[in-house]
Sequence to fold (110 residues):
Amino acid sequence: MNQYKTRPLHQCACETCQHYPRSETAKEHRAINRLLATLDEKSRRRFAGLLVINAEYGDIQRLIEITGLSRNTICRGRDEIKRIEPRNTRVRVRRAGGGRQAVEKKTRKS
Fold:
């Protein structure tokens, strides 16, 4: 089983990518989405936050079109970038207790 899962590649919905799919801007947007598809959710959020802080991608609405991420996700990533936590506290991607409960394996008693 592959331990690195990728999320589906988002198709940019911006006007430039729709009308000029071979332009440099469209190539850059595809590269951003290819990278986002390989990241886990925390890294994806932080990368989007970094793009918002960057002057070139400062508009949140524009980044929503490019990446397909929600406004809350992008704003949360931006806030996390502004206050990076100490290295020793970054252990989990999700909070403990999420996901399916463990299923007890049934065995035959002889």
